[in-house]
Write a structure and sequence with these properties.
Layout: H1 10-13, H2 21-34, H3 39-55, H4 58-80, E1 101-102, E2 105-106, H5 122-136, H6 143-150, H7 152-158, E3 178-179, H8 185-193, H9 195-206, E4 218-221, E5 228-235, E6 238-239, H10 241-246, H11 248-254, E7 269-274, E8 278-283, E9 290-298, E10 303-307, E11 310-312, E12 319-322, E13 328-332, E14 341-349, H12 355-364
Antiparallel strand pairs: 1-2, 3-12, 4-5, 5-6, 5-7, 7-14, 8-13, 9-12, 9-14, 10-11, 10-13
Helix pairs in contact: 5-6, 5-12
């Protein structure tokens, strides 16, 4: 039995597709009412579909089938992997308390740590880590890292005395003692916009200082003269949970930085305080893959940073970028009544380290690896 529509209006069926939504809805209803649900109509519909499939280009169908097979293989391959999880500056490491804490400061106890331990097998260990990364992911973009690891001993021994990173040197990076603000413009501007936020949290922390003891969370560093204190939020790629909870807004700010090093042992973020009369001995940083950013919080007179023999002064609310793999020192020769020099220090990626290289370096120099 065939159902016949009550009325047929050819003009309605030829209505333009670009009609308003309400009109299209009405037309759809009329179109459904006009449809004849006969067996012959159903047969014609199926036959038309089969013919359309047959008319498709065989090459296109083969290409689609190949892409589908490749997608299924990729999903299977990725699903089998169990990639290493890294510590990030966006999540507090719950296990940090078990890794050794002294006065809120994380110390590395691993004899295999490439950041803290210098031994003859370091290059072999780095190369093993690189091979493991390449097997899991790809060798693509690893040429400069491979070259650096293969000839690491020559690079470190033959470097001029003005720049001599202690752990790892990545070759062919543009080198200079200081960098312009544009090197990491987004992060510099973000830090400077939050100057007051960081300063307020520091002032709250600094109220705990007294003459009789070092407040919880602070670390005193060795200096030829004076006192140098640091309060770490991230220390060698590991968050310090207790300290992060005491500076929640500054800690959250780290997660908004695009180039903050938070996944390997070369990444740090801390508040650094120099008391009047303090001189930090000349020293080299561990690597040239990072640039160190100092945001001035309190900058008395007669305070200087000297990198590669070039002096610079801090300014409150302004960032100063430098390569700490150069020989550098800092001092505060201002009068006691002017108070300490205070900066917020954070390590950022060197702008010429590519994204693929950053991922590989995070793997090779992961904390505790």
């Amino acid at each position: 039995m065939v159902w016949v529509p009550l009325r047929t209006t050819r003009t309605d069926r030829r209505a333009p597709l670009c009609a308003p939504a309400t009109r299209c809805t009405t037309m759809s209803l009329e179109w459904l009412m006009d449809w004849s649900w006969s067996l012959d109509g159903l047969r014609d519909f199926i036959a038309t579909g089969i013919q359309s499939f047959r008319d498709c280009d065989a090459t296109a169908l083969a290409a689609v089938a190949c892409l589908l097979v490749l997608f299924v293989w990729y999903c299977y391959h990725v699903g089998r992997e169990q990639p290493r999880t890294y510590a990030t500056v966006n999540a507090l490491m719950q296990s940090a308390e078990a890794n050794g804490m002294q006065n809120g400061y994380v110390y590395c106890h691993s004899p295999e740590c490439v950041r803290c331990t210098h031994h003859d097998g370091l290059n072999q260990k780095l190369y093993h880590n690189l091979q493991e990364y390449a097997k899991r992911y790809s060798w693509s973009g690893m040429g400069r890292i491979h070259k650096g690891i293969r000839e690491q001993g020559r690079y470190l021994n033959s470097r001029p005395s003005i720049q001599k990173p202690e752990v790892f040197f990545l070759p062919d990076l543009p080198t200079m003692p200081y960098f312009s603000r544009d090197a990491q413009k987004h992060d510099v501007e973000l830090l400077e916009r939050n100057f007051q936020t960081i300063l307020c949290e520091f002032e709250t922390l600094y109220k705990a200082f007294s003459n009789c003891s070092l407040p919880q969370g602070w670390k005193m560093n060795s200096t030829p003269s004076g006192e140098w204190f640091t309060f770490y939020l991230v220390n060698q790629g590991m968050c310090v949970p207790r300290n992060c909870r005491r500076c929640p807004r500054t800690y959250r700010l780290l997660g908004s930085l695009r180039t903050c090093i938070g996944n390997n042992v070369f990444g740090n973020a801390c508040i650094s305080v120099l008391s009047p009369g303090t001189v930090i001995a000349e020293h080299y940083g561990p690597t040239n893959i990072r640039i160190r950013c100092h945001l001035g919080l309190k900058t008395p007179s007669n305070c200087e940073l000297v990198v590669g023999g070039e002096p610079q002064c801090w300014a409150e609310g302004r960032c100063l970028l430098f390569d700490d793999s150069f020989l550098h020192t800092a001092f505060h020769e201002g009068p006691p009544e002017e108070g300490p020099r205070v900066v917020f220090m954070v390590d950022l990626w060197h702008p010429n380290v590519a994204a693929a290289e950053r991922q590989a370096l995070d793997f090779i120099f992961a904390p505790g690896r």
